[in-house]
Amino acid sequence: MIEVNRKGEVWVFAEQHNGRLEDTPLELMSKARRLADTLGVELAAAVLGDKVKGLAAKLIQHGADKVYLVEHPLLGHYQTNSYAKVMYDLIHKYEPQIVLYGATITGRDLAPRIASAAKAGLTADCTDLQIGDHTTVKDKKLHKNLLFQIRPAFGGNIVATIINLDRWPQMATVREGVMPMPEPDAARKGKVIEETVKLAKQDLPLQLLAEHKRAKKVDLKAARIIVAGGAGVGSKDNFRLIWDLANCLGGAPAATRAAVDLGFIDHDHQVGQTGTTVRPSLYIAVGISGAIQHQAGMSQSQKIVAVNNDPDAPIFQVAHYKILGDLNVVVPLMIKTIREKGL
């Protein structure tokens, strides 16, 4: 177990692949910066890989005071054993009080292994993080400046706040897209700390022969306009209305998990707790009831238009504009008007 160090830094695991930083650690820098400032400590990023020194400057520009850099040929491709060993050794040496990971495929694989080695807690899929105080019920002891790890629980029906009193570092994975990416500041200065590591081939139980990645069909996080359909659209054929409306607006088609599970569209287009979190300028929800799991992924949109024939649909509680009616009538009228007006 790592010692509790209340002066310890706040860390972000800077996930990279093939020398390119993922968006999630950069998004995390905005929240981690606020956490570090609240605690009065430094913010650091840990980046592992081969020939990745050039990434340090970008991390500093996005808010890091320090970058712990570990380069080794055997870290060129991610493997759980090698990355967990290096990260644990860094954590043991520098004793950060908070370590954050993106809730990506890599983050969800790596963070539990490190938590197990450090005998520390880990909260998965957080949607918010705060610093606060907690008084234990049994002994009335006040614990100051804890990390409040906030995430949906029980299928998204409640929001739970989880704390870690005495087994540090406090660690969490954070969902992609829930934190706004900070603007880079080219004038920021920071310190790069290069660490050496001893790795042998036996530390990597797998031999990587080839790597194949499929690019996502749509980048929902970058879309300014999103038109999303739910199970209420009715069928895959009827889902063509969602595509048509999105196309005439220059937007991206999206869907709820229910629509994806029904085969209306593939998972790359899913918005919500188990999909992508988005914050477009305009979000049009068609035939979507608005369960909390879906709202978790789109409620921060600047303008929300909801089309539904149920006046009690939860989506109307977060919508700025509400259209009560049959989507099979409303959506074709919207498409016709947009095309006629040249909007």
Describe the structure.
The chain has 343 residues and is of the alpha/beta class. 26% of the residues lie in helices and 26% in strands. The strands form 4 sheets. The protein has a 7-stranded parallel beta sheet, with helices on both faces. β13, α5 (240-249) and β14 form a beta-alpha-beta unit. α3 (80-94) crosses α4 (105-118) and α5 (240-249) runs parallel beside α8.
List the helices and strands and how they pair.
Blueprint: E1 10-13, E2 16-17, E3 20-21, H1 23-39, E4 43-49, H2 55-61, E5 66-71, H3 80-94, E6 98-102, H4 105-118, E7 122-126, E8 128-135, E9 142-153, E10 158-162, E11 170-174, E12 191-195, E13 225-229, H5 240-249, E14 252-255, H6 257-261, E15 282-286, H7 292-298, E16 303-308, E17 321-324, H8 327-341
Helix pairs in contact: 3-4, 5-8
Helix content: 25-40%
Beta content: 25-35%
CATH homologous superfamily caption of the largest domain: HUPs
- Would you give the CATH topology of the largest domain? Rossmann fold
CATH class of the largest domain: Alpha Beta
Please count the beta strands (DSSP E, at least 2 residues each). 17
Q: Taking Cα atoms only, what radius of gyration do you get, to the nearest Å?
A: 22 Å
Uncertain runs are none
Number of domains: 2
User: Per CATH, which architecture of the largest domain?
Assistant: 3-Layer(aba) Sandwich
**SSE series:** EEEHEHEHEHEEEEEEEHEHEHEEH
